[in-house]
Specification:
single chain; alpha+beta; 3 domains
Length: 324
Amino acid sequence: MANRFYTILIIPEKTSRVRKIVLPGWILKGTAIGLSFVILIGTVMVFDYWYVMNQIGENKQLKMENRRLRQQVQVFKNKITTIESTMERVKTFATRLKVITNIEDRSGLLQTMNNNLPDAATNIGGPAPGATPAAMEAALAEVGDSRDPEAVQLRKEYEQLDNVFTDLNRETLYVEQLLQDQYELLADQKAFLAALPMRKPAVGYFTSGFGVRRSPYGGRVKMHEGLDIANRPGTPVKAPADGIIAFADSKAGYGQTIIINHGYGVETWYGHNKKILVTKGQKVRRGDSIALLGSSGRSTGPHVHYEVRVNGTPVDPLSYLLEN
């Protein structure tokens, strides 16, 4: 096929000379193809530039997010350090309490509690706003698919923090149970000590002690089941320990009588009173006035007959008194 030629005429405005350029067809075709290729390359370069700029923006955002997460991780590390230090002091204190209260460690307690432990991330409170474990996990999830080494390192540190929180939660529950046991024991011991009649019920002097003696009525030898404390009529008779008034009335031989139930099987009796100041069912504390010393019933003079009974059996009150 014969090659075609194209003629280009250039006609100036002010001159009469016309220029003519004759070009082969393949040159025009080559020029058109070259222009098309240049346009295509330019378009690709524009899109590639837009994509690169967009990636740069996302990378900057990821860097900022990673920096924020790293700051939050550091905050959590500081909080965990503080909690661990506090836990060590609490555990030391709990150990000391365990020694002085003679509490046996419950075998398998920690293992039993661990079976029903909540997740630490939902059980730890008090972090700074925007730095909660859930927020950190959500933020890490956004960058979780990133190949950024910093994001990978942040996720690893977060997982370590979560494990530390779980361990701290276990230790907290264990120490809480241990302290609860010690508190209950100490509270029971406090109540028991408060129920022991460790002081004299009245100021005075002993005229008769606990044991076998000759009765002032008839001279027969019989058991005297308490202490006689003599003083002037009207001397206050006070409760030697905490308890509840179980009896407050006249009793044969005892006259005006009060019986206090202190719990733990311990009762105290007060006979020959002049006047009763309490009523049945009333709670009294150690040192409360319950009667006025007198000489009612079978009595040879003003005094209070004081008995201590354990499970119904009279015992020597002197074995409980801490004062002379």
